[in-house]
Hints:
73% of the residues lie in helices and 4% in strands. The chain is mainly α. It has a single domain, classed as A middle domain of Talin 1 (Up-down Bundle), CATH 1.20.1420.30. α1 runs antiparallel to α2 (39-49), α6 (137-156) runs antiparallel to α13 (302-312) and α14 packs antiparallel against α15. It is globular. The protein starts with a helix and ends with a helix. Mean pLDDT is 81; it is low at 161-176.
Amino acid sequence: MGIIIPALIIIFSSILIWKSSNIFEISSLYLGRNLTDGVRGATINAISSSLPELLATLFFLILLKDSEGFIGGLGTTAGSAVFNSLLIPMLCILFVIIYNNTKAIEYSSKIIYRDGIALLIAEIILIITLSNNNLFWWHGAILMITYFGYLTFIFITMKINKEENTYRLEIDFETKRKMTLSDKTKFILLLDFHKILLNDKIINNRKAIILLFTSLFVMTISTFILVFACELLSSDTYTLIGSVEFKGLGLSISVISILIASAATSVPDTIISIKDAKRGNADDAISNAYGSNIFDICFALGLPLFLYCLFNGPIPLNGFNLRSAIDIRFSLLLITFLSLIVMVWGKKAGYLKALMLLLLYLGFIWFVIFRV
Protein backbone atom coordinates (compact mmCIF):
# COMPACT_ATOMS: atom_id res chain seq x y z
CA MET A 1 0.00 0.00 0.00
CA GLY A 2 2.89 2.35 0.74
CA ILE A 3 3.98 2.15 -2.90
CA ILE A 4 0.50 1.96 -4.42
CA ILE A 5 -0.70 5.28 -2.95
CA PRO A 6 2.07 7.49 -4.44
CA ALA A 7 1.94 5.44 -7.66
CA LEU A 8 -1.77 6.25 -8.07
CA ILE A 9 -1.08 9.92 -7.29
CA ILE A 10 1.66 9.95 -9.95
CA ILE A 11 -0.70 8.41 -12.52
CA PHE A 12 -3.38 10.99 -11.66
CA SER A 13 -0.93 13.89 -11.94
CA SER A 14 0.37 12.53 -15.26
CA ILE A 15 -3.19 12.53 -16.62
CA LEU A 16 -3.59 16.15 -15.53
CA ILE A 17 -0.31 17.07 -17.23
CA TRP A 18 -1.47 15.25 -20.37
CA LYS A 19 -4.79 17.13 -20.37
CA SER A 20 -3.10 20.49 -19.88
CA SER A 21 -0.68 19.66 -22.69
CA ASN A 22 -3.64 19.35 -25.09
CA ILE A 23 -4.64 22.92 -24.23
CA PHE A 24 -1.02 24.03 -24.60
CA GLU A 25 -0.78 22.50 -28.04
CA ILE A 26 -3.81 24.34 -29.39
CA SER A 27 -2.61 27.72 -28.15
CA SER A 28 0.96 27.16 -29.35
CA LEU A 29 -0.23 26.12 -32.81
CA TYR A 30 -2.00 29.44 -33.14
CA LEU A 31 0.60 31.68 -31.48
CA GLY A 32 3.35 30.11 -33.56
CA ARG A 33 1.49 30.14 -36.86
CA ASN A 34 3.95 32.61 -38.49
CA LEU A 35 7.06 30.65 -37.54
CA THR A 36 8.73 28.45 -40.12
CA ASP A 37 9.09 24.67 -39.81
CA GLY A 38 11.58 23.67 -37.15
CA VAL A 39 11.47 27.06 -35.41
CA ARG A 40 8.06 26.74 -33.79
CA GLY A 41 9.02 23.32 -32.46
CA ALA A 42 12.28 24.59 -30.99
CA THR A 43 10.72 27.66 -29.36
CA ILE A 44 6.99 27.92 -28.57
CA ASN A 45 6.29 24.18 -28.52
CA ALA A 46 9.48 23.43 -26.59
CA ILE A 47 8.88 26.10 -23.95
CA SER A 48 5.20 25.39 -23.43
CA SER A 49 5.64 21.62 -23.27
CA SER A 50 8.62 21.90 -20.89
CA LEU A 51 6.90 23.97 -18.22
CA PRO A 52 6.30 20.82 -16.09
CA GLU A 53 10.09 20.38 -15.77
CA LEU A 54 10.47 24.01 -14.69
CA LEU A 55 7.68 23.69 -12.14
CA ALA A 56 8.95 20.31 -10.90
CA THR A 57 12.45 21.72 -10.30
CA LEU A 58 10.98 24.68 -8.45
CA PHE A 59 8.77 22.47 -6.26
CA PHE A 60 11.63 20.03 -5.53
CA LEU A 61 13.67 22.95 -4.20
CA ILE A 62 10.74 24.31 -2.18
CA LEU A 63 9.79 20.95 -0.63
CA LEU A 64 13.19 19.26 -0.16
CA LYS A 65 15.43 22.36 -0.05
CA ASP A 66 19.18 22.68 -0.64
CA SER A 67 21.09 19.75 -2.16
CA GLU A 68 18.25 17.20 -2.08
CA GLY A 69 15.92 19.58 -3.88
CA PHE A 70 18.58 20.48 -6.43
CA ILE A 71 19.35 16.82 -7.15
CA GLY A 72 15.62 16.19 -7.60
CA GLY A 73 15.41 19.06 -10.08
CA LEU A 74 18.60 18.04 -11.88
CA GLY A 75 17.36 14.46 -12.12
CA THR A 76 14.02 15.61 -13.54
CA THR A 77 15.52 17.91 -16.17
CA ALA A 78 18.32 15.51 -17.15
CA GLY A 79 16.03 12.48 -17.21
CA SER A 80 13.53 14.42 -19.30
CA ALA A 81 16.31 15.43 -21.69
CA VAL A 82 17.30 11.78 -22.16
CA PHE A 83 13.64 10.81 -22.59
CA ASN A 84 13.20 13.54 -25.21
CA SER A 85 16.40 12.67 -27.10
CA LEU A 86 15.69 8.95 -27.29
CA LEU A 87 12.10 7.92 -26.70
CA ILE A 88 10.32 10.84 -28.38
CA PRO A 89 12.14 10.42 -31.75
CA MET A 90 11.62 6.66 -31.44
CA LEU A 91 7.88 7.05 -30.84
CA CYS A 92 7.59 9.60 -33.66
CA ILE A 93 9.29 7.20 -36.06
CA LEU A 94 7.00 4.31 -35.10
CA PHE A 95 3.79 6.37 -35.15
CA VAL A 96 4.52 7.85 -38.58
CA ILE A 97 5.50 4.48 -40.06
CA ILE A 98 2.35 2.81 -38.73
CA TYR A 99 -0.04 5.76 -39.21
CA ASN A 100 1.09 6.62 -42.75
CA ASN A 101 1.83 3.03 -43.75
CA THR A 102 5.36 3.90 -44.85
CA LYS A 103 8.80 2.41 -44.31
CA ALA A 104 10.64 5.44 -42.96
CA ILE A 105 10.25 9.04 -41.81
CA GLU A 106 12.15 11.86 -43.51
CA TYR A 107 13.56 14.88 -41.69
CA SER A 108 16.08 17.65 -42.25
CA SER A 109 19.60 16.97 -40.98
CA LYS A 110 19.97 20.75 -40.66
CA ILE A 111 17.57 20.67 -37.71
CA ILE A 112 19.59 17.91 -36.03
CA TYR A 113 22.88 19.79 -36.45
CA ARG A 114 21.43 23.13 -35.35
CA ASP A 115 19.61 21.97 -32.22
CA GLY A 116 21.92 19.04 -31.50
CA ILE A 117 25.08 21.15 -31.42
CA ALA A 118 23.28 23.79 -29.33
CA LEU A 119 22.22 21.04 -26.91
CA LEU A 120 25.78 19.70 -26.59
CA ILE A 121 27.06 23.22 -25.91
CA ALA A 122 24.36 23.72 -23.26
CA GLU A 123 25.31 20.44 -21.55
CA ILE A 124 29.02 21.33 -21.56
CA ILE A 125 28.16 24.71 -19.99
CA LEU A 126 26.06 22.82 -17.42
CA ILE A 127 29.06 20.63 -16.51
CA ILE A 128 31.43 23.60 -16.25
CA THR A 129 28.98 25.86 -14.42
CA LEU A 130 27.99 23.30 -11.80
CA SER A 131 31.49 21.95 -11.17
CA ASN A 132 31.80 23.66 -7.78
CA ASN A 133 30.84 22.18 -4.42
CA ASN A 134 28.66 25.23 -3.74
CA LEU A 135 26.01 26.51 -6.15
CA PHE A 136 25.26 30.24 -6.28
CA TRP A 137 22.60 32.41 -7.92
CA TRP A 138 24.97 33.37 -10.73
CA HIS A 139 25.24 29.70 -11.75
CA GLY A 140 21.53 29.81 -12.56
CA ALA A 141 22.00 33.17 -14.31
CA ILE A 142 24.69 31.70 -16.60
CA LEU A 143 22.37 28.85 -17.60
CA MET A 144 19.52 31.27 -18.38
CA ILE A 145 21.82 33.54 -20.42
CA THR A 146 22.85 30.48 -22.43
CA TYR A 147 19.21 29.80 -23.28
CA PHE A 148 18.54 33.40 -24.30
CA GLY A 149 21.60 33.18 -26.54
CA TYR A 150 20.11 30.10 -28.21
CA LEU A 151 16.76 31.87 -28.71
CA THR A 152 18.52 34.88 -30.20
CA PHE A 153 20.31 32.67 -32.71
CA ILE A 154 17.07 30.88 -33.62
CA PHE A 155 15.15 34.07 -34.37
CA ILE A 156 18.04 35.79 -36.17
CA THR A 157 18.34 32.86 -38.59
CA MET A 158 14.57 32.36 -38.92
CA LYS A 159 12.71 33.11 -42.12
CA ILE A 160 9.35 34.72 -41.43
CA ASN A 161 6.26 33.08 -42.87
CA LYS A 162 4.21 35.95 -44.33
CA GLU A 163 1.48 33.92 -45.99
CA GLU A 164 -0.94 33.71 -43.05
CA ASN A 165 -3.42 36.35 -41.92
CA THR A 166 -6.40 34.25 -40.81
CA TYR A 167 -6.30 30.95 -39.02
CA ARG A 168 -8.91 28.23 -38.62
CA LEU A 169 -8.06 25.37 -36.31
CA GLU A 170 -9.00 21.81 -37.15
CA ILE A 171 -10.28 20.21 -33.98
CA ASP A 172 -11.05 16.53 -33.71
CA PHE A 173 -14.30 16.74 -31.72
CA GLU A 174 -17.92 17.44 -32.48
CA THR A 175 -19.37 20.69 -31.13
CA LYS A 176 -22.74 22.38 -31.06
CA ARG A 177 -23.46 26.03 -31.69
CA LYS A 178 -25.38 26.10 -28.42
CA MET A 179 -23.84 23.93 -25.74
CA THR A 180 -26.06 22.48 -23.05
CA LEU A 181 -25.17 22.67 -19.35
CA SER A 182 -24.47 18.93 -19.29
CA ASP A 183 -22.03 19.34 -22.18
CA LYS A 184 -20.14 22.07 -20.32
CA THR A 185 -20.14 20.08 -17.07
CA LYS A 186 -18.75 17.02 -18.86
CA PHE A 187 -15.99 19.04 -20.54
CA ILE A 188 -15.04 20.71 -17.24
CA LEU A 189 -14.86 17.38 -15.39
CA LEU A 190 -12.69 15.99 -18.20
CA LEU A 191 -10.56 19.17 -18.13
CA ASP A 192 -11.37 19.78 -21.80
CA PHE A 193 -11.77 23.55 -21.35
CA HIS A 194 -10.76 24.20 -24.96
CA LYS A 195 -13.91 22.44 -26.19
CA ILE A 196 -16.03 25.05 -24.43
CA LEU A 197 -13.99 28.05 -25.51
CA LEU A 198 -13.60 26.82 -29.11
CA ASN A 199 -17.20 25.83 -29.61
CA ASP A 200 -17.22 27.50 -33.04
CA LYS A 201 -13.83 25.89 -33.89
CA ILE A 202 -12.29 29.33 -34.47
CA ILE A 203 -9.39 30.61 -32.41
CA ASN A 204 -8.01 34.14 -32.02
CA ASN A 205 -5.42 35.90 -29.86
CA ARG A 206 -7.77 36.32 -26.90
CA LYS A 207 -8.82 32.68 -26.89
CA ALA A 208 -5.23 31.50 -27.33
CA ILE A 209 -4.07 33.52 -24.31
CA ILE A 210 -6.95 32.25 -22.18
CA LEU A 211 -6.09 28.68 -23.13
CA LEU A 212 -2.43 29.31 -22.33
CA PHE A 213 -3.12 30.56 -18.79
CA THR A 214 -5.72 27.86 -18.16
CA SER A 215 -3.25 25.15 -19.08
CA LEU A 216 -0.57 26.82 -16.94
CA PHE A 217 -2.89 26.76 -13.92
CA VAL A 218 -3.75 23.07 -14.36
CA MET A 219 -0.12 22.18 -15.02
CA THR A 220 1.08 23.98 -11.87
CA ILE A 221 -1.29 22.02 -9.65
CA SER A 222 -0.55 18.68 -11.32
CA THR A 223 3.22 19.17 -11.16
CA PHE A 224 3.09 19.98 -7.45
CA ILE A 225 1.11 16.78 -6.88
CA LEU A 226 3.68 14.85 -8.92
CA VAL A 227 6.65 16.15 -6.90
CA PHE A 228 4.83 15.45 -3.63
CA ALA A 229 4.14 11.86 -4.73
CA CYS A 230 7.78 11.36 -5.79
CA GLU A 231 8.91 12.55 -2.37
CA LEU A 232 6.62 9.99 -0.71
CA LEU A 233 7.81 7.21 -3.00
CA SER A 234 11.48 7.88 -2.33
CA SER A 235 11.05 7.90 1.46
CA ASP A 236 11.77 4.93 3.72
CA THR A 237 8.53 5.63 5.56
CA TYR A 238 5.92 8.37 5.41
CA THR A 239 2.67 9.25 7.16
CA LEU A 240 -0.70 10.08 5.67
CA ILE A 241 -4.18 10.45 7.14
CA GLY A 242 -3.12 11.36 10.63
CA SER A 243 -0.56 8.97 12.10
CA VAL A 244 -0.89 6.04 9.68
CA GLU A 245 2.61 5.05 8.56
CA PHE A 246 3.45 3.60 5.15
CA LYS A 247 6.64 2.26 3.63
CA GLY A 248 8.14 3.83 0.52
CA LEU A 249 10.82 2.48 -1.80
CA GLY A 250 13.66 4.02 0.18
CA LEU A 251 15.49 5.09 -3.00
CA SER A 252 17.42 8.31 -3.51
CA ILE A 253 15.46 11.24 -4.88
CA SER A 254 17.83 11.33 -7.87
CA VAL A 255 16.71 7.87 -9.03
CA ILE A 256 13.01 8.64 -8.51
CA SER A 257 13.25 11.99 -10.30
CA ILE A 258 15.16 10.54 -13.28
CA LEU A 259 12.94 7.49 -13.76
CA ILE A 260 9.49 8.77 -12.77
CA ALA A 261 9.27 12.56 -12.52
CA SER A 262 11.12 13.05 -15.81
CA ALA A 263 8.84 10.65 -17.69
CA ALA A 264 5.68 12.25 -16.27
CA THR A 265 6.82 15.78 -17.11
CA SER A 266 7.77 14.70 -20.64
CA VAL A 267 4.17 13.82 -21.50
CA PRO A 268 3.49 17.22 -23.20
CA ASP A 269 6.69 16.98 -25.28
CA THR A 270 5.74 13.48 -26.38
CA ILE A 271 2.17 14.34 -27.35
CA ILE A 272 3.09 17.49 -29.28
CA SER A 273 5.96 15.79 -31.14
CA ILE A 274 3.89 12.74 -32.11
CA LYS A 275 1.04 14.90 -33.41
CA ASP A 276 3.50 17.04 -35.39
CA ALA A 277 5.05 13.90 -36.87
CA LYS A 278 1.65 12.48 -37.83
CA ARG A 279 0.83 15.77 -39.61
CA GLY A 280 4.02 15.39 -41.62
CA ASN A 281 5.97 18.04 -39.66
CA ALA A 282 8.90 15.81 -38.80
CA ASP A 283 11.25 18.77 -38.40
CA ASP A 284 8.98 20.37 -35.80
CA ALA A 285 8.58 17.03 -34.01
CA ILE A 286 12.33 16.53 -33.67
CA SER A 287 13.20 20.17 -32.98
CA ASN A 288 10.57 20.23 -30.23
CA ALA A 289 12.38 17.35 -28.50
CA TYR A 290 15.83 18.96 -28.75
CA GLY A 291 14.55 22.46 -28.07
CA SER A 292 12.79 21.16 -24.97
CA ASN A 293 16.08 19.68 -23.78
CA ILE A 294 17.85 23.02 -24.13
CA PHE A 295 15.03 24.72 -22.23
CA ASP A 296 15.12 22.02 -19.52
CA ILE A 297 18.87 22.21 -18.96
CA CYS A 298 19.29 25.97 -19.21
CA PHE A 299 16.03 27.53 -18.04
CA ALA A 300 13.98 24.89 -16.22
CA LEU A 301 17.04 24.24 -14.04
CA GLY A 302 18.61 27.72 -14.18
CA LEU A 303 15.60 29.83 -13.12
CA PRO A 304 14.71 27.82 -9.95
CA LEU A 305 18.42 27.64 -9.03
CA PHE A 306 18.73 31.40 -9.51
CA LEU A 307 15.65 32.22 -7.43
CA TYR A 308 16.37 29.75 -4.63
CA CYS A 309 20.00 30.84 -4.14
CA LEU A 310 19.04 34.49 -4.42
CA PHE A 311 16.67 34.24 -1.45
CA ASN A 312 18.19 31.35 0.55
CA GLY A 313 21.92 31.52 -0.14
CA PRO A 314 24.22 28.98 -1.86
CA ILE A 315 23.41 25.27 -2.13
CA PRO A 316 26.20 22.99 -0.80
CA LEU A 317 26.91 19.76 -2.71
CA ASN A 318 28.95 17.04 -1.05
CA GLY A 319 29.13 13.30 -0.60
CA PHE A 320 26.45 11.27 -2.35
CA ASN A 321 24.63 14.28 -3.85
CA LEU A 322 27.87 15.60 -5.38
CA ARG A 323 28.62 12.21 -6.95
CA SER A 324 25.05 11.91 -8.23
CA ALA A 325 25.24 15.37 -9.81
CA ILE A 326 28.50 14.46 -11.58
CA ASP A 327 27.16 11.10 -12.82
CA ILE A 328 23.94 12.66 -14.11
CA ARG A 329 25.67 15.47 -16.02
CA PHE A 330 28.29 13.32 -17.74
CA SER A 331 25.88 10.48 -18.59
CA LEU A 332 23.52 13.08 -20.11
CA LEU A 333 26.32 14.42 -22.34
CA LEU A 334 27.28 10.91 -23.48
CA ILE A 335 23.69 9.88 -24.24
CA THR A 336 23.06 13.10 -26.19
CA PHE A 337 26.20 12.58 -28.27
CA LEU A 338 25.25 8.97 -29.10
CA SER A 339 21.66 9.90 -29.95
CA LEU A 340 22.86 12.61 -32.34
CA ILE A 341 25.11 10.11 -34.11
CA VAL A 342 22.09 7.86 -34.62
CA MET A 343 19.90 10.72 -35.89
CA VAL A 344 22.42 12.25 -38.34
CA TRP A 345 23.13 8.84 -39.85
CA GLY A 346 21.10 9.34 -43.03
CA LYS A 347 18.08 11.60 -43.65
CA LYS A 348 15.53 8.84 -43.05
CA ALA A 349 14.60 6.91 -39.93
CA GLY A 350 12.99 3.48 -39.82
CA TYR A 351 12.67 0.56 -37.44
CA LEU A 352 16.45 0.17 -37.09
CA LYS A 353 16.94 3.70 -35.75
CA ALA A 354 13.94 3.30 -33.46
CA LEU A 355 15.50 0.13 -32.02
CA MET A 356 18.88 1.80 -31.54
CA LEU A 357 17.28 4.71 -29.66
CA LEU A 358 15.33 2.30 -27.45
CA LEU A 359 18.47 0.31 -26.58
CA LEU A 360 20.27 3.53 -25.63
CA TYR A 361 17.41 4.46 -23.31
CA LEU A 362 17.39 1.02 -21.67
CA GLY A 363 21.15 1.34 -21.18
CA PHE A 364 20.65 4.70 -19.48
CA ILE A 365 17.98 3.23 -17.17
CA TRP A 366 20.37 0.42 -16.21
CA PHE A 367 23.07 2.98 -15.41
CA VAL A 368 20.70 5.05 -13.26
CA ILE A 369 19.50 2.09 -11.23
CA PHE A 370 22.92 0.60 -10.55
CA ARG A 371 25.08 3.73 -10.44
CA VAL A 372 23.19 6.93 -9.67
